[in-house]
């Protein structure tokens, strides 16, 4: 009995502690730590920069494989202080929205009725927002709202963006027909660097089938 208890304690001590996702910023890279060992990590960013007097916006999006310590480093060709990153551990579904130290996140509340109850679309009032969806165990999708299909027009200045028209990131399969509870959604207005982000619950999708 004592030997069994000691074996159990030893096993528990040997197991890695559950870590939180963290992002550290380098001169030309960002390093994610706290991910699942050798698990896939979705890294989605919006970078606003000034290069030789010209304002530019980059939107890097990739699926990366963490090492045995749960760490992955992403090279950034033109890093900027003005950047926001959505990082998702695809094995656990844990996510974090991060920006370089000193740069304030301009996160808004989720607009009322921004999520179609059927799960088939996202409603937005700005014509050029970027839409991101990440699903645990599957992957990530992203498109600019102006580039994807329009499902509906409620007649109040908003437009419904069809989820199944989003484009897969990396080796992610084609976008699903509907959103499901647990999906992570971010809608980003890149020119103003404003966004909202949320993990969907069953109450958000009460009519989804």
Cα end-to-end separation? 50 Å
What is the percent of helical residues? Answer: under 10%
| Largest sheet entry | 6 strands, mixed
- Give the helices and strands as they follow along the chain: HEEEEEEEEEEEEEEEEE
* Binned strand content: 35-45%
Tally of helical runs: 1
Number of domains: 1
Q: C-alpha Rg, in Å?
A: 19 Å
Parts with pLDDT < 50 across at least 5 consecutive residues:
1-18
Rough shape? Answer: globular
- The neighbouring-strand order within the major sheet is 9-17-16-11-12-15
Tell me, rounded to a whole number, the average pLDDT. 85
Secondary structure: number of strands = 17
Structural class: mainly beta
Outline:
This protein is mostly beta strands. The chain is built from one helix and 17 strands.
Characterize the structure shown:
This protein has 209 residues and is mainly beta. It has one domain (22-199). It is 6% helix and 41% strand. The chain has one helix spanning 2-14; strands at residues 22-25, 29-33, 40-51, 54-58, 61-65, 72-75, 82-89, 95-98, 106-107, 121-124, 130-135, 139-144, 150-152, 159-162, 167-168, 184-189, 194-199. Strands 9-17-16-11-12-15 form a 6-stranded mixed beta sheet, with no helix packed on it. A hairpin with a 3-residue loop joins strand 11 (130-135) and strand 12 (139-144). The longest helix is centred in the first third of the chain and has 13 residues, at 2-14. It is globular and about 45 Å long.
Name the features:
single chain, 1 helix, 209 residues, mainly beta, five-stranded antiparallel β-sheet, globular
């Amino acid at each position: 009995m004592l030997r069994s208890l000691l074996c159990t304690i030893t096993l528990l001590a040997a197991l890695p502690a559950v870590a939180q996702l963290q992002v550290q910023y380098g001169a030309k890279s960002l390093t994610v730590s706290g991910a699942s060992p050798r698990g896939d990590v979705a890294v989605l960013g919006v970078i606003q920069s000034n290069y030789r007097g010209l304002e530019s916006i980059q939107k890097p999006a990739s699926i990366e494989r963490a090492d045995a310590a749960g760490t992955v480093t992403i090279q950034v060709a033109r890093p900027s202080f003005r950047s926001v990153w959505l990082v998702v551990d695809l094995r656990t579904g844990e996510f974090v929205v991060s920006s370089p130290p000193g740069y304030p996140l301009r996160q808004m509340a989720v607009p009322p009725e921004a999520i179609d109850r059927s799960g088939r679309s996202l409603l937005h009032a700005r014509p050029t927002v970027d839409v991101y969806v990440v699903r645990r165990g599957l992957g990530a999708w992203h498109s600019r709202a102006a580039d994807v299909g329009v499902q509906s027009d409620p007649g109040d200045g908003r437009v419904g963006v069809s989820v199944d028209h989003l484009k897969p990131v990396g080796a992610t399969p084609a976008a699903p027909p509907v959103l499901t509870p647990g999906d992570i959604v971010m809608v980003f207005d890149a020119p103003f660097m404003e966004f909202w982000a949320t993990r969907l619950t069953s109450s958000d999708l009460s009519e989804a089938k």
